[in-house]
Amino acid sequence: MAFRRLFPSRSLFVTSLLFFICIIVLFSLFNGVSFFFFKTKLEEEIIASNRMLLQHSAERYANHFSRLQSLLYSKYKEVDVQSFNRQIRLFGEAGTDYLTAKKISSQLRNEANDPLFYLESLILHFGGNAFAIDQEGSSSAEDMLGRAYQSSIYTYTYWQNQLLTDNTLTLLPAVRYNRSVELPQGSTLMPYVYKTLGSQYQIIAMLDMEKTLQALFGDARSRAFAITSKDGLLLYSSDAELDAGSIPAFGEGESHTLINRQYWFRTSDSSGLHYFTRVPSQAITSQLSEWNFTAAIVLALMLIVGIAASILFSKRLELPVKQLVDVFSNRRQDKQPSPIEEYAFIDRNIKELLKEREEVQAKMAKQRTLLTNFGYMSQLKNINEDIVELEQLLAMNESYTVVLYELRFRGSMLSVLNLRPENATLAIREHIRHIAQEHCPSSHTFQMEKNYILTVIKESRGVEIEAMLEKMKGMLDQCKHYCLVTIAVSARFEHPSQLGYAYEQVQMLSKQAKLLDETQLIQEPRELPDPPRLSLLQEQELITAIQGGQGVAAFMLIDSILEDMYTAGAAALHYDAFSSLVFEKVAASLGAMQLDASQSWAIKPLHYKLAACCTLSDYKEVLSRLLEAAAVLMIENRADTFDPIAARVMEIIEKQFAEELSLDYLAHTLNMSSAYLSAYIKEKTGTNFSEHLNSLRVSKAKELLTGTTLNINDISRQVGYHNVTSFNRMFKKGTGVAPSEFRKQSVLERKIG
């Protein structure tokens, strides 16, 4: 009753405000209950979660070490390894069977590259003759263990002494290895060593601890992780500040403890290794504090914002409704009203307004297509023609066909005949108009653009149109010595508003014209071949021929592609695109030679001549002149810039690229300082020494990849890279693809060719 007295009427404002407040109260109660329930459980769950995480990580590490132990034992006992050990002990390094060493290296590579082992390397160390094999190859033990895998702790002498110990399976503390060719970024590695008592060789697994940590433990940015042996020796720590002395002592059966505001968790595996993780206590307590504070703030803000929003939205909903009620209050309805008075009234009137709007929109939709397409008529109204004929065209209400004539003038013949293109276009248009009027009196002919003439034929039979087109082709063929024409015929359309679609259709058909020396008539679309392009090998051959001054060889390559295009039925637009591509490649090659403007200007006119080509012979002639001119410029530029020192450097690189060639060696050979020679080569050739050397090596590698069946490792050594990783990196930098991918592409291109 008190509620009734306070709110005597169920107005929109009262109803919406009460609804919002009820929702706010329900959500507040739910949040309060949830807060007090989860608060008591959260700390226990966080500690249990960290303890469980460490236990799972320890199990994964134990399983991983067990798998590595099995791997080391199986590799150590392989027949090839034991045979090689006996051989090297009997005959020394001079009698080493490198084929067996290569085979062992290949076997090690399969295991070392297995992503599930997280290994950086697998090394077989033969101590008697100081020889070592890993997955990348073989070398002296001092070179591999003292240089490639360089560490201040695990030196070559250390590994020699390790052979003298009585231990069979040893897990050594992880250390940070220095950067080297085998370790370009440097890594934290944990050596895992296996040997038998009295043996003269051992196998070493270099475990990448950063990858292992990420895979077996997870993100260690907010938690420190450590492993110790059963004797307390620190084997690995993810935090440089965490050492053996900072790890606290745990009581019997104790799995976690709180010391100096840090939670420590410990667990062990069956082999006696101990695993620790350290989580700052503030990381746990801060979660609780943040939860308490955030929950309180959110609850308070939710109440304040919710109540304020309820009042605001209720007022904003009530105001326009009251205004609408005032507007429509003079109209009376006998329908049963809605429980909310304002909405009942709005509902009735809005329905009437929507019904009226739908009727108006339906009428507008019927006219939308007509209004849109008549916008195309504005282009026709800009044509300087007989206004009466234009008005007849726009007012026509019968079916029609559109015929487009695309003109391509031969510039050379127009010059011989002393004809201007616009005058020739006018003459051709009048001939077209005359023939069209003769066969189809109701036709209209207009010049749409400088090379487009359009004829609109109304209500003519197909026989009449065919006769007109036949005569039109005969007339235009007489002009083919100075103008080639493509005739495109549209389908039949029913309304003048579709003229824009008809014009687009004939434009699309005209683009499918072939490169023929006659008038072409196109009435149906055809399937076009794929746009032409230069394959990777063809592009390299073209650039090599141009830079070598071999214009004829370059044109022979382009000529074969043009013939293939002609046989495949390529459209004229394909020839335009292909000739532009060739011009770009030529311009890029000349640009790389840093020619001045006066030299490169010689090929500029040929670019415009390519745009004016009309037949296959035209394209061949202009492209032949372009490639020959580019080759001459290359030869002249080389003659002008000949330098004996630079030539001598290039000669040495060409002859000795497969050797250990360095700038210091060149400087000593030429009796110059290294710094001066480096600057001199850069100044004279535009490229430094290493880029010249790597470019030649990559070029030779491409020849071997496409012309031989040698494997990647052999090719790497033959072109001067004694590390296959460096070879892969430089090859991809120079070509954009890896050597194996390049070989696949070249094989595929030969099959397609």
UniProtKB/TrEMBL annotation:
Segments forming a coiled coil: 343-370
Residue stretches spanning the membrane: 12-38, 291-313
Pfam families documented for this protein: HTH_18
Keyword Coiled coil: yes
UniProt xrefs under SUPFAM superfamilies: Homeodomain-like
GO molecular function: DNA-binding transcription factor activity; sequence-specific DNA binding
Alphabetical list of SMART domains matching this protein: HTH_ARAC
Domain HTH araC/xylS-type intervals: 647-745
Keywords attached to this entry: Coiled coil, DNA-binding, Membrane, Transcription, Transcription regulation, Transmembrane, Transmembrane helix
Keyword Disulfide bond carried by entry: no
InterPro entries: Homeodomain-like_sf, HTH_AraC, HTH_AraC-typ_CS, Tscrpt_reg_AraC-type_HTH
UniProt-listed Gene3D superfamilies: Homeodomain-like
PANTHER family cross-referenced by the UniProt entry: ARAC-FAMILY TRANSCRIPTIONAL REGULATOR, HTH-TYPE TRANSCRIPTIONAL ACTIVATOR RHAS
The protein's name: AraC-like DNA-binding protein
Protein species of origin: Paenibacillus endophyticus
